[in-house]
Amino acid sequence: MKEFTIPFVGLKQGEHHFEFKIDTKFFTHFEYEEFHSVDVLAKALLVKKSNSLEFVFEIDGFVNVSCDVTNEPYDQKLTGKHVLVVNFGQEYNDEDDSLLTIPHNSHEINIAQYIYELIVLSLPAKLVHPGIEDGTLDSEILKKLEELTPKHIEDKSSEEKTDPRWEELKKLLTDK
Q: Are 88 and 101 in contact (CB under 8 A)?
């Protein structure tokens, strides 16, 4: 993971751009095995100031995952952005997601963890194959789910009868 280590001591103040091609091998380091394949471009913009560093991370690409409904693999589009401010202090502190404090004598920072978290947190909570939404996916699991779905689901709100005494009062509201 040395390629994700940025030595900021030798850099002049201002903006510095970095790009990283993220693949499946990157996630084996974190022991994350939810992706079948990964093709993500991660960009890091470092703004070096006299007393702090500011990173703007952006990701764009695809990860191949399994659908939560049918378990069919598909490519999930990923985009995301995260800002990290790095201050210098007495000791290391990463309690805040967007603020990192590193010791004054530090001369480099590894950003692999932040890229990893941005990619994983950019995934939707429920992974649904696009073919389910547009009806184009032909899957045995979908057929079985449709077969087992109850045919007569009653909507209680529409069939609920109101007390006839209230009908006269409701007319007063509409007769204004």
A: yes
Q: How many CA atoms lie within 13 A of 110 on its CB side?
A: 6
Dist. CA 102–CA 93, nearest whole Å: 7
Q: Which amino acid, residue 137?
A: L
C-alpha to C-alpha distance for 127 and 74, rounded to whole angstroms: 9
Any idea which residue has 């209680």 for tokens? 156
**121: nearest Cα among 166, 85, 81:** 81
Sign of dihedral through CA atoms 99, 100, 105, 110? Answer: negative
In 3-state terms, the chain is what percent helix, strand and coil (to 5)? Answer: 25, 35, 35
Per-residue pLDDT tens digits for 143-158: 777 777 787 655 555 5
Q: Specify the pTM.
A: 0.76
Give the Å distances, CA to CA, from 108 to 53, 77, 137. 11, 32, 48
* DSSP per-residue string spanning 87-121: EEESS-B--SSSEEEEETT--EEE-HHHHHHHHHH
Let me know: does 6 contact 111? Beta carbons within 8 Å: yes
